[in-house]
């Protein structure tokens, strides 16, 4: 018996034909941005105006919406085109929300990079008039003041949050919660005035200016943020973990130390980082109590101490005869602040990844 070979016939699957590759939206979005960025570059070169990166990205995103709808309509049909259009509009709304941040970062980078050099990070402003100089004294002052404020705020805030979640009941807990809410809305200059009045009365020095006072003022702003963020993270720890620990005879304090805090350490670290980012750019309280100086000062308990926000403010508001060097230093100081905050966030994520509980099976 002989069998005849049947010729193979390719059968098209209606569910997979007429589909755009998954990378198509990303290519269209990137291409639209590149086209508008180039167009705006030519316009800037022809007119001599400033480069508007926010407008270029916005118009590029609108072009992406139109191109994605047209391409999808031609390949996949009207139904899929409408679906992709709605999705692209959601992406557009997200990009519009990010435009102020993009514009800010672009402006700071463009204006801050000319003085983002070794001299800026290795010299102070002592005996410097005009060009030259740096912000080493301000960077050191910011790290010392903010670090001292963190050492004060984190233990107080974390212990307060533990009390409110694990022990707090009755009028005292309600009073602490109320005052934490009130402190959350305190203007930063009020914190500076409080620290100045407190130390002026205690030390009997109406003209007192020193770094530790600035740390106290910043800690008043940090503590409510640490309390609130830590409290919410501690509440997310399942009660079953606590009950299992109690069932094994572990005392409550050891359960908090070994079970509750390690479980919520990732969120607590993030909250502490947010609190540091909240205060590291404050200018008003440090102007009042920490003062400003052009020299190095490593002692937070003695003499005036410069911080980066105050350095940026003083360089921008009080330029000398040659204005441009002062503006360049101000922009470089602002860029340094952004870099410090970014590094802090990266360190916080690393700490959270290392110390968070491993949920392996």
UniProtKB/TrEMBL annotation:
GO cellular component: plasma membrane
BP GO terms, sorted: phosphate ion transmembrane transport
Compartmental location: Cell membrane
Keywords, comma-separated and alphabetical: Cell membrane, Membrane, Phosphate transport, Transmembrane, Transmembrane helix, Transport
Primary location group: membrane
Chain ranges of the ABC transmembrane type-1 domain: 139-348
Record-annotated membrane-spanning stretches: 26-47, 53-75, 87-114, 134-164, 176-202, 208-227, 279-298, 330-352
Superkingdom of this protein's organism: Bacteria
UniProt-recorded Gene Ontology molecular function terms: phosphate transmembrane transporter activity
InterPro entries: MetI-like (IPR000515), MetI-like_sf (IPR035906), Phosphate_PstA (IPR005672), Phosphate_transprt_permease (IPR051408)
Topological type in the membrane: Multi-pass membrane protein
Pfam families in the cross-refs: BPD_transp_1
Record family assignment: Belongs to the binding-protein-dependent transport system permease family. CysTW subfamily.
Function: Part of the binding-protein-dependent transport system for phosphate; probably responsible for the translocation of the substrate across the membrane.
Protein name: Phosphate transport system permease protein PstA
Originating species: Conyzicola lurida
Organism taxonomic ancestry: Bacteria, Bacillati, Actinomycetota, Actinomycetes, Micrococcales
């Amino acid at each position: 018996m002989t069998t005849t070979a049947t010729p193979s016939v390719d059968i098209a699957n209606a569910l997979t034909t007429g589909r755009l590759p998954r990378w198509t939206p990303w290519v269209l979005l990137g291409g639209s941005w590149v086209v508008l960025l180039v167009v705006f570059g030519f316009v800037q070169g022809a007119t001599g105006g400033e480069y508007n990166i926010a407008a270029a990205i916005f118009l590029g995103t609108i072009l992406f919406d139109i191109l994605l709808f047209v391409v999808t309509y031609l390949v996949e049909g009207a139904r899929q085109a409408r679906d992709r259009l709605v999705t692209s509009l959601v992406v557009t709304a997200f990009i519009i929300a990010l435009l102020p941040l993009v514009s800010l970062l672009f402006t700071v980078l463009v204006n801050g990079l000319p003085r983002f050099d070794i001299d800026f990070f290795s010299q102070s402003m002592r005996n410097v008039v005009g060009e030259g100089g740096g912000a080493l004294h301000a960077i050191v002052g910011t790290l010392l003041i903010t670090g001292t404020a963190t050492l004060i705020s984190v233990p107080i805030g974390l212990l307060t949050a533990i009390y409110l979640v694990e022990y707090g009941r009755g009028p005292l807990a309600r009073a602490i919660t109320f005052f934490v809410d009130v402190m959350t809305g305190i203007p930063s200059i009020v914190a500076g005035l409080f620290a100045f009045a407190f130390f002026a009365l205690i030390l009997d020095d109406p003209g007192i200016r020193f770094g530790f006072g600035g740390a106290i003022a910043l800690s008043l702003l940090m503590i409510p943020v640490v309390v609130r963020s830590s409290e919410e993270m501690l509440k997310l720890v399942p009660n079953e973990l606590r009950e299992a620990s109690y069932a094994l005879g572990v005392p409550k304090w050891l359960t908090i130390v070994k079970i509750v805090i390690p479980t919520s350490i990732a969120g607590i670290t993030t909250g502490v980082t947010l609190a540091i980012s909240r205060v590291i750019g404050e200018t008003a309280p440090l102007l009042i109590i920490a003062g400003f100086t052009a020299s190095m000062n490593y002692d937070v308990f003695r003499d005036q101490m410069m911080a980066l926000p105050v350095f940026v403010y003083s360089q921008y508001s009080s330029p000398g005869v040659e204005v441009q060097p002062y503006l360049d230093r101000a922009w470089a100081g602002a860029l340094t602040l952004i870099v410090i905050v970014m590094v802090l966030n990266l360190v916080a994520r690393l700490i959270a990844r290392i110390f968070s509980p491993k949920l392996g099976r």
